[in-house]
Amino acid sequence: MTVLENILHGRWDELEAQHKTGPGEYEYFRRKFVSLGQARQCVASVYEIPLGKSAYPYHYHLQNEETFFILKGTGALRTPEGERQASAGELLFFPAGPGGAHKLTNTGTEPLVYLDFDTHNDLDVAVYPDSRKLGVWGKGVNMVFPEGDAVDYYQGE
User: Fold this and answer.
1) DSSP state, 36?
2) 62 CB-contact burial (10 Å; exposed 0-12 / middle 13-18 / buried 19+)
3) Coil, helix or strand at residue 4
4) What is the mean pLDDT of each run of 10 residues along the chain (157 residues)?
């Protein structure tokens, strides 16, 4: 069986799960099956989102692209076009840039499970429009800043 066939037949749950919680509505279980080191520019994980939760806030990337294939459950998908329901069997693509902004929240009666395929550039910036933050990821950097902390290019030089 291929990796995708194993996942679709329930074997994805044999992968080690990383559990992460944030404040309020944020919680997920992530099982990586293609990670950096195995691949240079592609990562793939299975996410399981508990009832009423989201993995991440509404955001978009300046470099990386994301594709979700929903394996099980239903959720509210927020994009720049508004909010709609997404459900098992749907393939969702989020391009880099403001047009690819997204947030997926489990609104169903069972865990929301999706396969997440992402490109991975050496350095990426994520923009969080609701909280006006910027996240900088890659090359040993993992930081989030309020947009209001911006300074003049030459400040402190």
Assistant:
1) B
2) middle
3) helix
4) 54 77 92 67 90 97 96 97 97 98 98 94 94 92 92 91
